[in-house]
Structure formats: C-alpha cells, structure tokens
Design brief:
Low-confidence stretches of chain A: 1-5, 318-330
Mean pLDDT of chain A: 90
Radius of gyration of chain A: 25 Å
Oligomer: homodimer
Strand content of chain A: 15-25%
Number of strands of chain A: 13
Helix content of chain A: 25-40%
Shape of chain A: globular
Order of helices and strands of chain A: EHEHEHEHEHEEHEHEEEEEHHHHH
Largest interface: A-B, 129 and 128 residues
Chain lengths: 330, 330
C-alpha cells in the first residue's frame, strides 16, 4: 500500500465471529483468539453475555435484536479508525448472522477489500448442527434451513420454500420459528408440511443448546404447534425416513438401499463403492429401456416432463469406461 | 446401573467428533479435548492425517472412504471393552458424517443409551459454513445441502430435490459434487437448475477449505461444469439475489424489502421490528381483499390452490392485538 496522506496509520479489521452455541467448550481456537485480539466487541446483548469473561478491558457495544445494520455501521466506524473489531453472532456468522448485513453496509459505504479495512469471517457451528448433535443424527441426509421470520421476507416466498422442501423430502431446520408477535407462521409451516408428510413425522425442538437453560422436546409434525417454541428454539423436522428410538432422532443415510442390514451383504444388483442400480447411470438406462414416453415417466418419477424428454433425446452414454480406471468411489 | 456379572468394569464411550475444516485453528475446545481423552481414534485416512499431532500414543485405525459402517463397528467393539473412542469426521459429524451410520450400527447391534456405552456428538462447522466464510456471505438467507452421491440414494430422489430448491430460490451447497467415477451428476444438477435460474447465477467452488491446498474459484451456473471440481470441493450456488462484488459473493438478507438503502429510512408501509407488509398478516389481508378466487391467487403467488383455499376459508384474524403487548420483534 502506498504511503499517502490518506492511508490510515494502522489497518483496521472487522472479524465476524461465529460463537457456535455459546458455551466456551464449543468456541474454536480462532474464534477465541479473534475476541482476544479485538479492541472493540459488538453484538446482540445476549451474545455479549455469553463471552463476558473474554471481553474484559475492551470496548463493548451491546445492541438489541433488530439493530443489525447499526452493529455493522459501528463496526466499520471503529475499523476505519484503525481498530480491530469483533462483530459476534451466535452459531455461524454466515447463517442468518452478521456476515451478510455487514457486507451490505460496507459496500453501501464504498468499502473495497483494498481500502484499508480487512474483513475476516470466522466460521462456527450453526444452530442446526448444535441442536442436531443433542438429539441424535437427524441431519444425516439432505437438509435445509428456513427462517420463519417475515420481517424482511414476504410470506409467499417462505411458504413456497416450505412447501417445496416438504414435497422433496428434506430434513428441515426452522430458524426464528416463533416470537411474541409472530405466532402464526409456525402454524402455517405445519399446514404446508402436512400436505406432504405424515402427521407422525418426528420433530425435535431444542432451546438454548449447550446453555444452562437447554431444553429438548421430541414431538411430531401434528403436535409441534402445541409445544413451547420461542426465539431461542430451533425446530428440526425429520424426513420420511427419520425415526426416533431410545430417545434419539436418527435419519438414515441410505444403507438399506444397498445392503441387507441383517447379513451386511450387498443386495442383488448392488455393489459397494459404486452408484446404486437406481443411481444416475442405471436409472437413465431404465428410462430408455422402459418403453414409456416422457409424460408417463415424468408422472412415475415425479420429475418435470421437459427434463425427462431432454434425457431421452440424448444419445446413450457408453458407460463409465473412462471412470473404471479411476478406482473405487471416493 | 446394577452391578451384575455382565456389567463392564468401566464405561466405554464413543465420541463422534466434527473436526470442522481440519485446521487446528478451527477445532473447538471440546473437539480437541475429546481426541485427547480417547484411547482409540478411528477415521478416514485423510481426517486422521489432519490431527496427526494429536493422536500420538493412541491406537489409530485408518479406514478408506466407503468403510463407514466398518468404522462404526470397530468403534462399538472397542467401546464395549470399556475404551474411549473418538470417531472423527471432517466438518460436522451429523452432516453426511459418521453420526447417522454409527447410530444405525449401534441400534442394529442392540445398543441402548443405558447399556454401558455412552455416545456423545461434538458438533463442528460443516463444509458449507467454512466454504461460505472464505467467499463472503453467500448463505445469509434460506439454504440447503444436497449430496450428489448416488451410492446410497436413487437419482430421481436427488433430482427432485435439486429441482425443488432451484425453483424455490434457495442458496444451495452441493456436497460430493463429483468424483473420478461420478462425473455426470453435476451436469444434471446444472441442467435442473437452469430450468429456474439465470445462467449467470453466481457459483463458488471451494476446495480444501483452510488447508494448504485451498483453492477458490468463482464462476456461474452456466460455466460451473467447466471448472475443476472433485471430492474435496463444495459447490455453492447463489439464489436469485446473490451477487459478486470485489471478489466476494454475498446473498442479501432482505433489507431492501424494508429500507431505502440510500437514506436508511423504512419504505412506505413498513416498520422496523415488525413483519413486512407482505409478511403473513399483511399478505393474508391482501388475499381476502383481492377479490380473486383461490385458483387465480394460486397462480399469482405460485402456491398450491388447496393451501390458498384453506386460508380463504378461515375466519379473518382479529390482528395481533394480543401480541402488541409483547413488544418489538425479538
């Protein structure tokens, strides 16, 4: 950087720190070091409290919940003065946290990565990971996170997302499920899910994970709206294979598709380390061999007709001959 | 626990440890402590290498990629002998990691939480969090994780999920995007996404996050299949609002729906700390006031007709009067 009169004497820095669930056990070494390095720590009052012992002697700015843009503005203000600022979020700063709002504020203010204020994001485990760890293994397979907060997002957008992932059988983590003011969104989420999922689909509600007031409740899709849910809760809705046994919520990875669980042997037509017989290659072969038209296959597989038609129109793959040499699936 | 001849002298334990990205900086204190506590450490050879300095003097069992069930079986075997076993995964053990397979093996073997082998899951930041932290703030809003591996999952299931989340405008992280053998799944993912998303949708491909061979490439939905993607890569596909500026990929949180970004003032009809005018309450009012029928509203809002019909049929809410006292949105 050239030494011009406008160059700040020292380079300021904004560190977007994900605290994870907030217990010190679950802070990463880098997160802890970032807070130690900071001159100023800014965050929602509850998060500041989580790291109270680590902020002694530092400037501490506590903000209330909806003042996210303010936090980012104050962080930038200090950093421009050459200070190191830790902007803290629970969980991961990139997941409904401070990372996005901070960049929006920085860009709006004309900041660029070369302008003398450095920005570092320190990842942490998000609520869906920490809550999942307390109830078993609910995430195992494809999952989503949806926020039920409509403070910044129109309801139809949220509703379309809920309906889409319920239909496509994802495990779903609902963030911001309910508040003093927003009580009906969780009811609507249940309504949309019940269009596709069994009423007895396992649901876990975890509040204040890894903190003193931690509370875990197992329930079902049908009954979840009768449970205690608040802003400190994360709601985990299982997919159609998720089960609860011995107080643990588990989503299978799919071994039963390939292996006989009693004997451990692979099922007829399946091979360890290879795609399923209904994986892409085998499934494509089946499409061609079926003799059915695109419209019929689209209904059978619940996929768009234009997609099936495009696949049928392509020349057949010669198979994975080039891949054979690549060895077992990594 | 009663002292019967069959009770083991010491209680064994399985600790399912999420290593995060693998660099020691990003290990949580609990993850590090769990490895230190272990008599035996079991994991895929690459993950063992990441914690090589921490496993001195311990029994170390290295496994290859598809031997997940074997790792769980060996862990249970040692734990039944009273040992403490760290079963390690990169990222978070609950996300396409060892947690699900381990519980499946344990239940199959007749284990219960009271049977003398304790199980603890130690959460870590998953690849989607760590990769996101390196490229900016792509996750900010609703997101999903989908594995393109069809070793245990039929292709139509994966395809339905890809199509659903592309249509519903999620940010999407693709895990296991490509391997030596599986080269076409990423092509199909692109094809399905292009049914709904602009070809210039930002995509980031991150390989070996926070490790020596880390590599980040920014591309687009259209071009991503030309890029170097492998089993150490995570592919992040933005939603329709995601943008790239100054080398950073950012998904907006939605402030523009509520605030004028130039002045910072709330837009007409909007209030800080309250649901948008198109949040659930306002949107419902709009449905009723529109004079349109369920079928027309369903097309307009791209939501199921039966859902709209059910909403129209309900008596109107008297509004959030009970919630007014609850104070500003938390």
């Amino acid at each position: 950087m050239n030494d011009t009169p406008n160059t700040p004497a020292s380079v300021g820095k904004i560190m977007l720190v994900g605290l994870g669930p907030g217990s010190h056990d679950h802070l990463t070494a880098r997160a802890r070091a970032a807070i130690a390095e900071a001159d100023t720590v800014i965050g929602y009052v509850t998060y500041i409290r989580l790291v109270a012992e680590l902020v002694d002697g530092k400037e501490v700015i506590k903000k209330s919940m909806t003042e996210e843009l303010d936090r980012a503005i104050e962080a930038f203000d200090r950093a421009r003065q050459g200070k190191k600022v830790a902007l803290i979020s629970s969980g991961d700063a990139g997941v409904y946290g401070m990372a996005g709002p901070t960049f929006e504020v920085l860009f709006q203010a004309g900041w660029t990565p070369e302008s003398g204020v450095e920005v570092e994001i320190i990842p942490g485990a998000s609520a869906l990971n920490t809550c999942a760890a307390l109830v078993g293994a609910p995430l195992t397979h494809d999952f989503c996170a949806i926020s039920l907060s409509d403070l910044l997002t129109p309801w139809p957008t949220i509703a379309r997302r809920l309906d889409a992932v319920a239909a496509a059988d994802f495990v779903v983590a609902l963030y911001n499920p309910k508040s003093g003011r927003r009580t009906r969104q969780i009811v609507e989420a249940r309504r949309l899910f019940l269009r596709h999922r069994r009423p007895d689909t396992p649901v876990a509600i975890v509040k204040s994970a890894y903190r003193p007031r931690q509370r875990i409740e197992f329930t079902t899709l049908e009954n979840m709206t009768d449970c205690d849910i608040g802003m400190l809760s994360t709601v985990l809705i299982g997919n159609s294979n998720t089960f609860v046994r011995h107080g643990l919520m588990v989503t299978p990875r799919g071994y039963r598709n390939k292996y006989d669980v009693e004997s451990g042997a692979t099922r007829d037509g399946e091979q360890a380390g290879r795609s399923l017989s209904t994986g892409l290659t085998g499934w494509l072969a089946g499409l061609h061999a079926s003799g059915l038209c695109a419209a019929e296959l689209a209904v059978l597989h619940r996929l768009p007709e234009d997609y099936i038609a495009a696949l049928l129109a392509e020349p057949r793959d010669t198979g994975d001959t080039a891949d054979e040499a690549a060895g077992a699936e990594a």
